[in-house]
Task: inverse folding
């Protein structure tokens, strides 16, 4: 179980550290707007902040499992939000597959931490 927790945590940390960097620098701003329909730079910074917070909680959770649960719940919710926004905006491409994958990692981490 410990190996699964570490693998899922590292994958989630990598995704949700690079995602906010790409949003804040504007690299993914056009895709973010296309996927979510949100054009405001402020919205990008809020979502980027939540992404980074989720990654931080998961990272801390490697040494404090209860914190990992909070991070997994936050990242699951964010992935769900991204999926809902993509459906509402009629985008069913690779982004949808990506957030289904990332969400499954977050749910897997949540399950693994709770089953510990």
Result:
């Amino acid at each position: 179980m410990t190996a699964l927790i570490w693998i899922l945590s590292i994958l989630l940390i990598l995704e949700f550290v690079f995602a906010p960097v790409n949003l804040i620098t504007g690299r993914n701003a056009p895709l973010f707007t296309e996927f979510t329909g949100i054009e405001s730079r402020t919205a990008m910074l809020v979502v980027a902040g939540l992404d980074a917070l989720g990654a931080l909680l998961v990272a801390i959770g490697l040494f404090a499992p209860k914190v990992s649960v909070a991070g997994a719940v936050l990242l699951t919710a964010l992935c769900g939000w991204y999926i809902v926004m993509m459906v509402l905006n009629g985008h069913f491409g690779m982004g949808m597959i990506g957030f289904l994958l990332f969400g499954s990692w977050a749910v897997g981490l949540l399950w693994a931490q709770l089953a510990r």
User: Anything to note?
Assistant: Residues 65-88 form the longest helix (24 residues). The mean pLDDT is 91. Residues 37 and 89 are 6 Å apart (CA to CA). The radius of gyration is 14 Å.
